[in-house]
Design brief:
The chain has 171 residues and is of the alpha+beta class. It is 16% helix and 42% strand. The longest helix has 17 residues. The protein is globular, with a radius of gyration of 18 Å.
Amino acid sequence: MKNFKRIFILIVGAVVLTGCPLSYNFPIDQPSVRVDPGLYGKYKDPNGESNFDKIPSTLTIAAGTVYSYTVIESYPTKDLEGNVIQVSNEYSAHISKIKGTSFVNLCRKGDDLYWFYKMDTKGTNLLITEVSCLGYGDDWISKNSRELKIFLGKYIKEKRMYGDSFELIRQ
């Protein structure tokens, strides 16, 4: 029983130390920032988690509505029989602004879970940084969009609020 407790504590510790992407079943706020057509296009994620035989995943950002984007993620993988197939996932995204910083609210089509990322531009490329809940105790738990926006505004300049960053290379 002692070994089980130790292993359980190690697993929980590993999860806590690696952070967790912040997600909720509501966005930071409702879409209200007009889309920037300059962001439309195809981007490569050379370090994408879906890399297969060193082939990067791609993201295509296209028009959604006046206030939202359609994002299509595409990457190669193997099916159960070992054949290489192309997989695509479609997302809806909109930008929220907090103290001049752009945050992406990303929701997979047909789902109601939002993932949050800080977005900066680097020339024609996009620098995307995961919003994390590491090191905030229960302060990161929000019940609605208003509380979430207050939380993000409170810790916006703290490095511990952010997880991994990756650059999307415009093609």
